[in-house]
Amino acid sequence: MKWFVSARSAETISSTIRTGETVDWDGAVTQAIRAGRELTHADDGSPLQPGRNYRIGDGEVVSTGYTAREDDLRLRMQLRLEYDAEAANVTPHQTASRSVDEQWGRISHWLRGNLSSVSIAGATEEQITDAMRATGGLWPEELTSFFRLVNGFPRESWVSMFPMHELFDLDRAVSERQLELNIWGEIDAEMGAEPQTDTSAGDYVGTYLPHFLPFAGADGYLLFVDARPGPLQGCVTEFQKVDADGAGPKWPSLSAMLTDLADSLENGTVFDGQTPFVVNGQLRWQ
Fold this sequence. Notes:
five-stranded antiparallel beta sheet, 7 helices, alpha+beta, four-stranded antiparallel beta sheet, elongated, single chain, 11 strands
């Protein structure tokens, strides 16, 4: 089984890489940890930062500090292996896809009737076209329909639309996508990852693809529409700054997600693990 470990130079901002191969997973972990311990300086003598990135076989990257104990490192790699196996079997919420316009109508009606201050305005066709051009291709119709209805919220009347993510406007969606492409492009280059081709919407790739179109996020966690072709084209997935797209699709479509959100707001039921309530005219989640 192949293994890989890398560490970044504090001076040159480049990475030093060690690789190897052994007969089984346990041996690969042992060799990778040993190599990581030895990576204190780059080949040119420059000091390396304490962070280490490990990959065992075809598994996903495990990041940790140089000083971590060996049993802790081994446990993290075992948990990563188990998580990858579970993620492969995750299925999205079973809410059926419906009309984006209809479901957003329910949501906007609730917002205007329950919040003290709310401003809802959609993007223009020119703004949508510019965003599509900047991201290199056509968007699923549900996503363009959504931004026609709401193009984020102004700061003076901000709405906590989702429990763990803030709603983006088009400019933020374009910039966040490019930021993730830059970050994960560097990670893939360090790891020697092969380009992800011939994958379908909803397929796990462990990196950020140009087809991932974000519409909400916070602190490195994004909700994106998967524009890759396939039966799940347009599904909504959470992208996580450590586990990438490992959790799999959360909803089969944007309209299905909006249906669950509308149901939650109208009935006070759970949406994405939290329940909505209104405090001093503001939407909160708990």
